[in-house]
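Troubleshooting: if your tokenizer reports a length mismatch, compare your output against this known-good record of 330 residues.
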Amino acid sequence: MIRRRSTPWIHKWSRPLIAAIAGCGALTTGYLTIEKLTGGSTACVAQAGVKGCNDVLSSPWATVFGQPLALFGFLAYTSMLIFALAPLVFSSPDNNNSRKQLENLTWWLLLVGAIAMSVFSGYLMYLLAFQIRAFCPYCIGSALFSTSLLVLTIIGRTWEDIGQILFTALIVGMVTLIGTLGIYAGVNQSDVTPGTPGQPVKISFVPKEDPNPAIGGWQITTTSGEAEIALARHLAKIGAKEYVAYWCPHCHEQKLIFGKEAYQEIDNNNIKVECAPEGLKAQPELCKAAKIGGFPTWIINGKSYSGVQNLEELAKASGYTGPRNFKYFK
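Known-good structure output:
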């Protein structure tokens, strides 16, 4: 008597597992999409001096074709969820041939989708580590979800032709990578025109000489647009404070993000508080009273924000509703 070979447990549960992971990915990216579209701040524990999730969402890489990148992630995870459950939900149990065809089709769609998502997530991890230099649990979690989907798709069924899988992975991976580089080409170009909407310039300040306390630090070499000036005036109107030290390079990086004209508004409206005793218009007693532990530190509507802030983040924190075509980011 020929004993029938039992089905491996991973083959029985691969589709439900894929659906569960895709569902978690859809919830994560859906949450980030809502926060991005509504101008909210993510629930993300940030440490002083370390960029976090909100910095990632405010970076130019977080917007694709004028829409939040997280929205495309939500659509991708939702598609994987549908592909995983389709044969279990939509096929008729009385028609084995139709069910088999739907299973084969959706397995290939799952494979192509998982490869593309994994390659794209790998590039985003590169940006997170080397360009934005931030720690974002949501982003890392999404990358792990994508990788898990790829692993489950490969081991979740018996593939007859391994060579075809490798060929598919090569083609889909190359197309995804080339498309990704093309989408973000404008962000990575070094000659992007400052102030072009959707293409802000990354600020990276490296001190080359000692700061001058008589002028409050280093000279500001960037220029402001209407959005930067309007935000500075709004911050003054609501009584926001920025605690700085003239010798602090991160404080100067914050100035460069605002630009010369906008930061004059901050200076003239007493938003900036100089904490170094030997600095220009120093007020160390105010810094001590506010328990400032690092520079720069913003206090907006009673809440403290440590480190250099992108203007998009300051706009969200302060309830600013004016133009947001900011020219620079960190």
